[in-house]
């Protein structure tokens, strides 16, 4: 699963959105995948239920969350979506997030073997959160994804598919 290709195929980058609550932010983050048919509303419900049970386990770094739930639950195909918020939302643990990168996976192996290295590569870029929030167009986000392909985390990956 190629991050850039998924963003393009699912038309799943939304920038400068507003959300009053973390639940609304997660809904906005999943909606592009629902719109494209990659996931269903059930996937959003699964993320909310999982967050209420386990807390916001998917906040990976200050300012960034990767909402996801159990693989396959409401997921039709492996995909990613990315949203940025004008103002951060605060999760139940007090952490603020302004970039949400949703992962919808059909199998657990997708999380670790394919998705996580690409996400690490993107977010290890210098000032990645600030740069993503400043993006005005999906093309600017795609340029950052392209830039991240030189990361050592992606050595041995064929991301050209």
TrEMBL record:
* Domain PTS EIIA type-2 span(s) in chain numbering: 6-148
Keyword list, A-Z: Cytoplasm, Kinase, Phosphoprotein, Phosphotransferase system, Sugar transport, Transferase, Transport
- Write down a Pfam family by its short name: PTS_EIIA_2
Q: Which organism is it from?
A: Streptococcus caprae
What is the recorded name of this protein? Answer: Ascorbate-specific PTS system EIIA component
Q: What does this protein do?
A: The phosphoenolpyruvate-dependent sugar phosphotransferase system (sugar PTS), a major carbohydrate active transport system, catalyzes the phosphorylation of incoming sugar substrates concomitantly with their translocation across the cell membrane. The enzyme II UlaABC PTS system is involved in ascorbate transport.
Coiled coil where? none
Q: Which InterPro entries match?
A: Ascorbate-PTS_EIIA_comp, PTrfase/Anion_transptr, PTS_EIIA_type-2_dom
Location in the cell reads:
Cytoplasm
Question: Which lineage is the organism of this entry classified under, starting from the top rank?
Answer: Bacteria, Bacillati, Bacillota, Bacilli, Lactobacillales
